[in-house]
Amino acid sequence: MSITTDTNDNADLPVFPGVRSQRCPLDPPAEYADWRQAEGLRHVRLWNGHTAWAVTRYEDVRAVLSDPRLSADAQRYPSVLPHTQVPAFPRMDDPDHARLRRMLTADFTVKRVEAMRPEIHEVVERFLDEMISKGQPADLVREYALPIPSLVISLLLGVPYDDHEFFQQHSATMNHANASPQEKAEASGALFGYLLSLVKRKEREPGDDLISRLLTERVAKGELSREEAAMNGMILLFAGHETTANMIGLGTLALLQNPDQAARIRDTDDPAVVANAVEELLRYLSIAQDMIVRVATEDLTIGGQFVRAGEAVTVNLPAANRDTAFLDQPDNVDIDRNTRGHLAFGYGIHQCLGQNLARVELQVALPALLRRLPGLRLAVSLEEVKFRHDMSAYGVHELPVAW
Ligand code: HEM
User: Fold this and answer.
1) Burial level of 398, CB count in 10 A (0-12/13-18/19+)?
2) For 3, phi and psi rounded to 5 degrees?
3) Which of 31, 109, 176, 339 is most deeply buried (CB count within 10 A of its CB)?
4) What percentage of the chain reaches a pLDDT higher than 90?
5) Phi and psi of 60, rounded to 5°?
6) Which is it for strands 51-55 and 312-315: parallel, antiparallel or unpaired?
7) How far is the CA of 282 from the centre of ligand 1 (A)?
8) Could you report the per-residue pLDDT of 49-74, keeping only the tens digit for each?
9) Ligand 1 pocket, 239 CB below 6 A?
10) Does the pLDDT value for residue 2 go beyond 80?
């Protein structure tokens, strides 16, 4: 089937994701509210140059993400969906997607992740100690927000953390709007090569980690190839640190902007208050601004819009999570409200595999920071903070802080 989207006739369309105002950098671009109000869907130009329909209403997003007629299969639609040398399950449809995802779910259940909480506490305290001992001002992203999820996912997978600069740098290239397809392919190839040699090493010397378990429990039985095991490791490494890191960085900034809510998190000894606060921050910030693209496998109607087979559809999570049809006063951050049903981790069969881990990391990292450094403040003006308008996961490139 030919793809009807092309890169030449869409120069007039708004670029998606749009750029946020520097005055309200925690709010989605203003035009999203208009798109949500307008009939049908908005035609937009994606960072890769393709045309897509942007879905902005809460109910429409849920409908898209639970509709099997919309495909995430990058092998089938290689010109629109980012693909990798070995197929990766986030870019597959069921049943292939389910076969590979099922092999990983046991490592990300609430129970398994809760068992990691003490270790996550230790990691958090260690990076806090290091940041404090280096002195202020400090870049919170470099010293705290990025290293925590990076070390945690490395421990879980069995990836040597000493290699963190290598995998952080390549993950960032894969996430960057301005990286060329060639640069993205090279970064993804380098990461995959790294994981494949790690897999070969672990076949000889297995450890107590997820990749070793995949090898002994799946590869040895012929249920998974070595390449698929390496690709699963690569996906988790890639997905497991950039996203959470940006929630820690941007979440901290949101709390500094809302000191009464920060105080409530700092002063409570009720874990349920912290857990609820994390859900609200996930909703309010909806950092996954450019992660979800699907292709219609047949003609269909979404939100009153006729969409032809082969056309791309992108899901606008920041807009959907600020829809008044979902909750009242969505532009306020209110850590005590009920945000059940928010879409920050997506919805349907591809809903985030690592969400329980991300939650625990945030539930530990945000209060620990506020408690150890009650005087935490921005070391620059808000206007000087560099926001990640150009990255798939929104956030801050740097967050200079003092205490
Ligand atoms: C706050 C942090 C995070 C956010 C906001 C987030 C967001 C998302 C979103 C929106 C999706 C859906 C993509 C789609 O439908 O195409 C997703 C999928 C995924 N996430 Fe996360 N994520 C986070 C943390 C993590 C972590 C820590 C891991 C791994 C340890 C992870 C692993 C994955 C994987 C493997 C998928 C693909 C699932 C599938 O296709 O079945 N994520 N994430």
Assistant:
1) middle
2) -90, 130
3) 339
4) 87
5) -65, -40
6) parallel
7) 13
8) 999 999 999 999 999 999 999 999 99
9) yes
10) no
Closest Cα to atom 42 of ligand 1: 354
Nearest to 330 by CA among 313, 343, 315, 348: 343
Q: Is the pLDDT of residue 4 over 60?
A: no
Report CA dihedral (84, 113, 109, 171) to the nearest 10 degrees: -10
Query: Taking every pair of C-alpha atoms in the chain, what is the biggest distance, in angstroms?
Result: 60
CB-based burial label for 151 (10 Å; 0-12, 13-18, 19+): buried
CATH topology of domain 15-402: Cytochrome p450 (1.10.630)
pLDDT tens digits, one per residue of 146-170: 999 999 999 999 999 999 999 999 9
Report the nearest-CA residue for atom 23 of ligand 1.
243
Report the pLDDT value the prediction gives residue 354, as an integer from 0 to 100: 98
Q: Rounded to whole angstroms, how far apart are CA atoms 63 and 217?
A: 36
CA of 346 to the centre of ligand 1 (A): 8
Residues pairing with 169 in the sheet: none
